[in-house]
Automatic annotation (TrEMBL):
The gene is Ddhd2. InterPro entries: DDHD_dom, PA-PLA1, SAM, SAM/pointed_sf, WWE_SEC23-DDH2. Signal peptide: none annotated. It comes from Lophotis ruficrista. This is DDHD2 Phospholipase. SUPFAM superfamilies: SAM/Pointed domain. Belongs to the PA-PLA1 family.
């Protein structure tokens, strides 16, 4: 039994910590954290200013218990005990035990305990202690989500670590499950979603780069320079091929390690895995996902689909292009070389010459390719570029302007990729990617949600890169309580009212102007004239306002949920914007930083994540939220 007790380890906090009973220590399982002390509590004290009972150390609790048992056995009370810190505990009777806290220098003057201020209450056992002991988390885990942080070691406005922020995110998810998935919980259809943090910052800055930076950093404004070295420079590190390799290796290996460790500790787990990234972390995940290789079976299916579209439709497109260029006599040559549209746009003059195409037709084809390159050249993964077509020397596995790195493969296929406050769109644009092919989807991940706060200065949209010719608003995330925030409803109402007033006023002025400028008509035609004026007034009122984008009511902005935004999110909308809080609407600049760091405690964000995850399992919200897909 003693040997078993030595090795007795109890998992707590949903299996994220192990408590070693013999050592009285709590150890983090998935991440590095200081070992914390665990106490077996039997004796407690509570002062006037304390709002809860505080346990004594186990050693002193044993002394108290021994004195208490002697007093009970011999019925001798009013015993005094002195703690190691010279504090006095008096056991008056079983129901009255007090703890006198010594006042500084009071003992030098021979003061008695009654002169040392109000005593603390001492209690034995946990009965009648109004302690809120949580019931714990559901044992069943339905889905696993890895969360990757952005720049710097701190992840929110309170400078907390990724572990603490993900703890908040997880706690909010548990409350959202109770509020919005109550039926499924009562029917035991669902348990919970586990969120695990992925830390790459410490690995990057343990490479010795901080020492190198310290040598070249100026001594002035020391704190600001240290902050920049520790946070902002992470963006530049990621754009360096040397440190980019370190970052992607760390993120991928850490997620694979956590996944294998999770499966070892949860052998019955049959759920899916999703990934989420905040800020720069979302870009790291996006680059990893675009460089994943699909399974051979999927490759065969996708290649078969590609062959039917690319070989058949592609060859037909090539024929149309040659016909347009009046070069139809070369169709057989291109068909013999199995040249589809994409292959055509990868051709160089040398390739065309090897195919036996004369100089004149070669020039026509190359001119056509260069003129259409901005919209038609599809590089790796279907990302379209504004640059000239690549030559054969272009690396086939390197996306346009993406940092040269060997991207590791993940041990699983993510179900959904969630990006919070993400600069993916900006980085793709800076890399020279002008458009994302609507037919493109991430090789191993079929879901992609880009979630952002309207005042987040780091966040950028994705959908306009897929549908550049159409202006439309992002999807407005519904409030978790099932309504729009009051100030947004008020703003929409006032906007709608002003548009209606403007339309009516312009319509009335137009009718008045037309009746004023109309030539006098015979009295016989007066009746028909009145009818015509009314008809024209109605037509004018209908045709009048082509409302400008800023005047469009917000209700109309939610309609483009049916817009085709390609296959990046399985045909569903990608960009989702949070509703700002009333106080945030007073000054956008004041709350810009808070807007970038608000996602960890955002109920609306968490609810969207849970809704999309459980939708893949056929489980929906108790009541659909208005405005949601």
């Amino acid at each position: 039994a003693g040997r078993d007790e030595d090795d007795l380890v109890v998992p707590t906090s949903g299996g994220r910590y192990d408590v070693h009973l013999k050592k009285r220590q709590r150890v983090a399982v998935y991440w590095e954290e200081e070992v914390s002390e665990v106490r077996r509590c039997t004796w407690f004290y509570k002062g006037d200013k304390d709002n809860k009972y505080i346990p004594y150390s186990e050693t002193f609790s044993e002394e108290l218990e021994e004195a208490y048992m002697i007093a009970v056995t011999l019925d001798e009370w009013k015993k005094k005990l002195e703690s190691p810190s010279r504090e006095v505990i008096i056991l008056h009777n079983p129901k009255l035990m007090v703890h006198y806290h010594p006042v500084a220098t009071s003992d030098d003057w021979g003061s008695t305990p009654t002169e040392q201020g109000r005593p603390r209450t001492v209690k034995r056992g946990v009965e009648n202690i109004a302690a809120e002991i949580p019931n714990g988390e559901p044992l069943q885990i339905d889905h696993l989500v890895f969360v990757v942080h952005g720049i710097g070691p701190a992840c929110d406005i309170r400078f907390r670590s990724i572990v603490q922020c993900v703890n908040d995110f997880r706690n909010v998810s548990l409350s959202m499950l109770q509020a919005h998935f109550k039926k499924a919980q009562e029917q035991q259809q669902i348990g919970r979603v586990e969120f695990l943090p992925v830390n790459w910052h410490s690995s990057l800055h343990s490479t010795g780069v901080d020492v190198d930076l310290e040598r070249i950093t100026l001594p002035s404004i020391n704190r600001l320079r240290h902050f920049i070295n520790d946070t902002i420079l992470d963006v530049f590190f990621y754009n360096s091929s040397t440190y980019c390799q370190t970052i992607v290796d760390t993120v991928a290996s850490e997620m694979n390690r956590l996944y294998q460790l999770f499966l070892q500790r949860n052998p019955l787990f049959k759920g899916g895995v999703s990934i989420a990234g905040h800020s720069l972390g979302s870009l790291i995940l996006f680059d990893l996902l675009t460089n994943q290789k699909a399974a051979p079976e999927e490759d065969e299916h996708s290649q078969e689909g590609a062959r039917t579209t690319s070989s058949n439709r592609g060859i037909e497109d090539v024929k149309e292009i040659l016909k347009k260029l009046e070069l139809s006599e070369y169709c057989d040559v291109f068909e013999k070389e199995k040249m589809d549209r994409q292959a055509l746009f990868l051709c160089t003059e040398k390739n065309l010459k090897e195919m036996g195409i004369p100089l004149g037709p070669r020039m026509k084809i190359l001119h056509y390719i260069s003129s259409k390159a901005e919209m038609q050249v599809c590089l790796l993964h279907g990302l379209c570029s504004s640059r000239s077509p690549p030559t054969r020397e272009t690396k086939p596995n390197l996306p346009l302007s993406q940092v040269s790195a060997n991207y590791p493969q993940l041990d699983y296929k993510p179900t959904i990729f969630f990006a919070f406050g993400s600069p993916i769109g900006m980085f793709l644009t800076v890399r020279g990617v002008k458009r994302i092919n609507p037919n493109y989807s991430l090789p191993t991940c079929k879901g992609f949600f880009n979630i952002f706060h309207p005042f987040d200065p780091v966040a950028y949209r994705i959908e306009p890169m897929i549908v550049p010719d159409l202006e439309f608003e992002p999807m407005l995330l519904p409030h978790h309580k099932g309504r729009k925030r009051m100030h947004l409803e008020l703003k929409e109402g006032l906007t709608r009212m002003s548009v209606d007033l403007k339309n009516n006023l312009l319509g009335s002025l137009r009718v008045a102007w037309q009746s004023f400028t109309r030539a006098p008509l015979p009295a016989v035609e007066a009746a028909s004239t009145d009818a015509e004026v009314e008809a024209e007034a109605e037509a004018g009122a209908e045709k009048q306002p082509d409302t400008k984008p800023e005047e469009t009511p917000a209700a109309a902005k939610e309609e483009p949920s049916l817009i085709n935004v390609g296959r990046l999110n399985g045909g569903n909308r990608i960009d989702y914007v949070l509703q700002e809080k009333p106080i945030e609407s007073f000054n956008e600049y004041l709350f810009a930083l808070q807007g970038h760091l608000c996602y960890w405690e955002s109920e609306d964000t968490v609810l969207l994540v849970l809704k999309e995850i459980y939708q893949t399992q056929g489980i929906t919200l108790d009541q659909p939220l208005p405005g949601s897909q």
